[in-house]
């Protein structure tokens, strides 16, 4: 029997959308993430939460090997005006890991998803 994709092992669209729902609420409330003014201009406005949850869910579905459904910006374009530094990336990455732990995602899937996130660090971190 073929091994299930990470997308399937994370619970498909329901599992991923549920995790992003928790994650984005945490990111919008996280003081370290919002210390970046440009990030706060977006994450400080609760009206941005539903659309952002939609985009991050679709991105995560694709990144985990699920169906193609993401039509947002690529990771360079999405972050190129935010001047995100290593510390800013770490703050978000820690929230993603904390959310996966909080939701009881098993170790193998936790590691696999965090490896994907880490692989995008060079595209997201663009501060001089
Ligand atoms: C691998 C890690 C990351 C992923 C997968 C990710 C994913 C995304 C996605 C899918 C979007 C939507 C793009 C669009 O509007 O078309 C986005 C936008 C955004 N991301 Fe990230 N992101 C990551 C890291 C970060 C970090 C580290 C920060 C802040 C410290 C951040 C802050 C933002 C903000 C503020 C926006 C909205 C920009 C705007 O439309 O004004 N992201 N991100």
Automatic annotation (TrEMBL):
UniProt entry tagged with the keyword Heme? yes
For whether the record's keyword set contains Ribonucleoprotein, the answer is: no
Q: Which UniProt keywords apply?
A: Heme, Iron, Metal-binding, Transport
Report the Gene3D superfamilies cross-referenced here: Globins
The secretion signal range is: none
Protein name per Swiss-Prot or TrEMBL: Hemoglobin
